[in-house]
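Internal ticket #5521
Category: modeling
Description: The requester needs a full-assembly model to guide mutagenesis choices. All entity lines are attached below as received. Residue total reported by intake: 1228.
Assigned to: D.W.
Attached entities:
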Amino acid sequence: MADHPFTPTVYWNTIGSHEPALYVESGDTVQTTTVDARGWDSAGDQAAARGNPMTGPIHVAGAEPGDTLAVRFERIVPNREWAWASDVLSPNVVDPEFAARLPKADIRRWKVNAAEGCAELEDARAGYWAGRRLPLRPFLGCFGVAPARGQAISTSTSGEHGGNMDYRGFVAGVTAYFPVFAPGALLHLGDGHALQGDGEIAGTGLEISMSVRFTVTVLKGRAIGWPRGETEDRIFTVGNARPLDQALQYATTEMLRWLTEDYKLTVQEASQLLGQTVRYEIANVYNPAYSVVCLIDKAYLPGVATS
Amino acid sequence: MADHPFTPTVYWNTIGSHEPALYVESGDTVQTTTVDARGWDSAGDQAAARGNPMTGPIHVAGAEPGDTLAVRFERIVPNREWAWASDVLSPNVVDPEFAARLPKADIRRWKVNAAEGCAELEDARAGYWAGRRLPLRPFLGCFGVAPARGQAISTSTSGEHGGNMDYRGFVAGVTAYFPVFAPGALLHLGDGHALQGDGEIAGTGLEISMSVRFTVTVLKGRAIGWPRGETEDRIFTVGNARPLDQALQYATTEMLRWLTEDYKLTVQEASQLLGQTVRYEIANVYNPAYSVVCLIDKAYLPGVATS
Amino acid sequence: MADHPFTPTVYWNTIGSHEPALYVESGDTVQTTTVDARGWDSAGDQAAARGNPMTGPIHVAGAEPGDTLAVRFERIVPNREWAWASDVLSPNVVDPEFAARLPKADIRRWKVNAAEGCAELEDARAGYWAGRRLPLRPFLGCFGVAPARGQAISTSTSGEHGGNMDYRGFVAGVTAYFPVFAPGALLHLGDGHALQGDGEIAGTGLEISMSVRFTVTVLKGRAIGWPRGETEDRIFTVGNARPLDQALQYATTEMLRWLTEDYKLTVQEASQLLGQTVRYEIANVYNPAYSVVCLIDKAYLPGVATS
Amino acid sequence: MADHPFTPTVYWNTIGSHEPALYVESGDTVQTTTVDARGWDSAGDQAAARGNPMTGPIHVAGAEPGDTLAVRFERIVPNREWAWASDVLSPNVVDPEFAARLPKADIRRWKVNAAEGCAELEDARAGYWAGRRLPLRPFLGCFGVAPARGQAISTSTSGEHGGNMDYRGFVAGVTAYFPVFAPGALLHLGDGHALQGDGEIAGTGLEISMSVRFTVTVLKGRAIGWPRGETEDRIFTVGNARPLDQALQYATTEMLRWLTEDYKLTVQEASQLLGQTVRYEIANVYNPAYSVVCLIDKAYLPGVATS
């Protein structure tokens, strides 16, 4: 249960079976940093090539294909005082007929105050944004493990291995679970967002470098199909694909497996629970693969008392 | 501002320019009942043909194409003590490969206690559902106004005119807005659900007959493109289409219009607000047209104080 | 087997259970005309409201729900010397990022010479289209029978009842089959195109009024699920839905039913035939419902000799 | 213009920047073999791991990012006398409700006679397939160049770099064009099909090992966005994505670029040509990325005489 301060020197724009940058044991904690989606670090220097450069990979001893890697985030905090973001919606989230009327997007700077937990548009002297502040909710947009078959997959997209899911729910306090496809799991992480709405519909969150602290644990012999997660109140699954319909199918099937295989509900019992109480969140509807999250309240899990 | 107790005698399985069953004025309140999706009324009798039979249509004096009809629900309460629901997920919400492994769906009865606000599966003597209760959250699954061009559209689906959106957010306290396409607007309503999760992924909610009270108001000269709504805290828009991607495009474009045309934000101001704070809800992913809801907190609307 | 010359005086912009304009017997032939998608007739006069106005409906004696209506086109010929067409692709068929770069679409006139079977852009004095001619291939873009449940469905879209499929394969010589949902079947037809590529990707074909001759036959007790068709060489099924994936699913399932129920192949036999020889055509990728056609060579049907 | 007989000894299940197996010059011809999708070679031995193992990569001197690689197939001929194929449609190509009724798929053997150009199901003693033969049309299902950003992408899927497109149009006589992303282009090839219908809807063609002969040419400084191709009569572009709608958008946009940038048509001229004459083919609707092909007759290209 060692504690690893780790300063990255190499960054990757794919998630794959790259040379490990750090070796840890199951149960260890890592304290590190991530650069932003364009490779700018805490000092605003270009530390890596743009396109979601990743810190890592981190090799977790004992993780083998067929296992699950748990990553519990203890801390995700912006480590500089500004972020950048697009100022126009992505054309794929509006009617095709309307897309032609969208103005050209610019990148705008936001002031970020991590101590007070808020952000404001930097040069908003007049209009809607003048004097207006938004509350921060920092998370990592892109993280995951080396994919199957020796693939190296661009950090612009996502899959069973995680990747660029841009799910605003991956905040500190959450545990993420990934299927292990390669020895050591090979965790990569980056693409911090100080804030983002559902879907990442402007194509960015408030993009920023981060200070991150997390603990990795290998769950031996427990195979899952898609990224899963757990908050204080809910369990969830993530499906990554296009269109949203298919991402939802993956997430729902994974939740059905979780409820029937781990929690021993019958398909009918689980279907009735999901049918009347499921929640979905649209994590991203912008990247090459979209991400849909399927959530169930822990209050409904067997063994937990209900009203 | 009259109050109309109304007992339906005719039901429609399409939403269209049918003979009005009730004539009211803008500002009037209607107290009526709806039968369930199979046409069973409060006594359990077959009062109408199955397939979301509608109470109405209600003609609202002065409503003309180009106006908006506001429908504020004051009360949506089950008027009998049982509901029915499917017990297996719909095959279209799981992986196609998994669909073949789903058991055949049955219809199950639920006991509904409106006074205590809870429901339980009727014959659950053992297993997960034994002794387990779910909290009610009653809403109408299908309601809307006569569509454009003299169409009569099946209540199995939805469109710009509303219809079978199966949005669990249309509870008492919410105001729904519809574009008016025909003189008198011609409001139809039915398909009550005592409870339902996101997406109606088992193909049903807890299907039940309802006692409903609502107030209709004509907003003259205010044209909207898709159903909109308003809760105490949020405004929202609804897009109805397949796949989910397109439903989301419709809902997002309609919200962008609302923010720019009514609240006078620029496209960039609105895009930045949506990009960092928007919420989406998947209302239904089962009907011929899926429904996606786009929501913004009222706290972010201009003129409202922010943190 | 009467022959009915029929001059329409009323046109409909929905397909529904409207008052029949003509009563015929099974086996009868009808000779009539259709106006173009904007309601302009052979003389160029506005004879009907724009939006695919339909000739009909034609009531075929003896057709009842559960039967099939066969419509064999003997003649589909433009009855005026000009057509109109859009000159820019629809934004939904290009990348969303590219859609913003499309110029604004205009409507252009084409000269149509039915005798010589060719068309040319009317005012192309220079550039690509100067002196260039395209061969005609006239068909009806929108035709079908009254849909189920008393619906009246806009002629902008399509469904199990047919409608605005815009399939360039519905030329003279082809027999179309529709499921009958209402007594008399109630055939509507219109929206002639002198020529069109796959998908109707500019949003129009060469839009023109037509002289049409066809024979209707009721196939008693033969129920089908979706429009079907037959050429000299092939049989085909049509699925109408969004996205293309679902239209393809409907068409493929309908073909599988045809091969197994009518031609008595097992699912495996039919799957192997389809897997190695099926052809798909994208009829339209523009209307509210897209249309995909699934085709099999008649040479592969049982009872027909093969190489 | 050397001729390279090449016997592969290593196979790859990803397409990526792997160690070149053969170095050639632009204009050179390669004569080699490919194993089938399960790694079985001409002798039926397991020569490589299953999952579309690739022959190559072949390094073409002078090819740099921003160039185009042309691959002209002179010969694609089965080099053994049997193929294998699935006998049931993939569940994703039928209605979700119907998927549950599909029988379990088996792998069946087909006898392949390359000399006579036909195939027949091996053990069809009775029923539809007894004595029935299908004409061969051999092509490569999976081939392409190393993708951008150092990615290594599974041969189960496809993208801008080509890959598992399963397009039955890639037969001998056709020239394929790929964007070059890595020095030497790094061509991979395999997954031969002796025959397949549109869409690969049973999940396989007639899977077989091949003898292949092709010529590679580097087109310096000519950048393309997606795979393109050319037959004697037509030019075409390939879009790879889900759903089919997006694959079609990619293919159409690429064709529009081709017509406007290379053939110097205006967007309006190209739109009118595409709108009235375009053809689409659904290459595959089975793999993780679907493939849609957009085709134009060469007769319509500027400089070519027309009727």
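Resolution: model delivered.
Comment from assignee: The CA atoms of residues 93 and 170 of chain B lie 23 Å apart.
Ticket closed.
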